[in-house]
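Tip: read the tokens left to right.
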């Protein structure tokens, strides 16, 4: 692993909250860079929903036309019944970046899954894997009791981890409970042990540009328009096809994704159309709020460690200005 990193040039990375415009900006910069510098750019998706096959509309997956314009990676990596881990994302991103650079092209990481980004940027602790049966049992508990109740359970066995998680953070609450159920030790115990022994996955060399909107109303309006457009484009029909898969359940990680969870509930008759739209938009806004909290913490970390990390406000810049910032942040080969 260390040998691979020695041959890895710094990687451009564009992150931001949902609906902030990062995917469109990335595509525009990739095309501009190829035209201006004669060097192709290939995009590596950093999105925990786009990795699943069949989750296209609700994940805002790049279209066939966009993929024809610029090569994309880490899309359609697994079936929706599968789980895709942070460690797998780290491994796949590193492999893709090395292959892209070996072709003489520029890799550009783009996405909003902050846990994935944190692992790439700061490295990843070596933690135990857990059986699917335990994950399913915890998912069933959550369906019966709700994630806040499971968060309270986690606080009893691992208060350190519970203290840093939102009571509705399904994925990370589940992961912490899975580790404790399988090993008898808390997640915080395994993290501390990994750090003491110097195990885990290394941080990658990144040049980061973060879109950090200052105006909540600007982002909320974009989120509402985008979710409504997804519904008009066939989100419910997409989820109806997913529900027809015999092995897929509501508690699978893919179906806990924002938009898909609300559509699944609606198609099962748990909400009417108006409530479905309201819940989908609100869930997207809550996701954006969590992403912005992550981004602010990353900015503070970068200032202390003097890392290549820059935040800009997309509310205050036009398209030309944003392209200029991209060039300043990671236009170098």
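Filled-in amino acids:
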């Amino acid at each position: 692993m260390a040998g691979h990193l020695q041959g890895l040039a710094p990687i451009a990375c564009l992150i931001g909250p949902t609906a902030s415009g990062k995917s469109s900006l990335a595509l525009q910069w990739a095309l501009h860079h190829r035209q201006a510098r004669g060097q192709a750019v290939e995009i590596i998706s950093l999105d925990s929903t786009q990795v699943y096959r069949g989750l296209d509309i609700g994940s805002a997956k790049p279209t066939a036309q966009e993929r024809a314009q610029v090569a994309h990676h880490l899309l359609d990596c697994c079936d929706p019944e599968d789980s895709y881990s942070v460690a797998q994302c780290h491994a796949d991103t590193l492999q893709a970046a090395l292959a892209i650079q070996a072709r003489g092209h520029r890799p550009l990481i783009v996405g909003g899954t902050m846990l994935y980004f944190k692992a790439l940027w700061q490295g990843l602790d070596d933690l135990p894997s857990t059986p699917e049966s335990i994950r399913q049992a915890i998912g069933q508990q959550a369906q019966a009791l709700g994630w806040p109740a499971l968060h309270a359970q986690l606080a009893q066995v691992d208060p350190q981890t519970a203290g840093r998680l939102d009571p509705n953070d399904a994925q990370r609450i589940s992961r912490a409970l899975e580790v404790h159920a399988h090993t008898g030790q808390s997640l915080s115990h395994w993290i501390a042990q990994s750090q003491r022994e110097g195990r885990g996955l290394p941080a990658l060399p990144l040049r980061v540009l973060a879109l950090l909107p200052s105006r909540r109303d600007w982002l909320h309006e974009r989120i509402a328009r985008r979710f409504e457009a997804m519904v008009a484009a066939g989100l419910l029909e997409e989820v109806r096809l997913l529900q027809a898969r015999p092995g897929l359940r509501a508690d699978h990680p893919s179906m806990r994704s924002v938009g898909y969870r609300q559509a699944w509930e609606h198609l099962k008759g748990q909400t009417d159309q108006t409530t479905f739209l309201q819940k989908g938009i609100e869930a997207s806004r809550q996701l954006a709020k969590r992403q912005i909290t992550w981004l602010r913490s990353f900015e503070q970390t970068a200032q202390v460690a003097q890392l290549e990390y820059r935040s800009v406000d997309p509310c205050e810049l036009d398209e030309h200005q944003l392209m200029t910032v991209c060039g300043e942040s990671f236009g170098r080969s």
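The beta strands are 11-15, 41-46, 72-73, 106-111, 206-211, 309-312. Residues 2-124+201-330 form a domain with the Rossmann fold fold (CATH 3.40.50.300).
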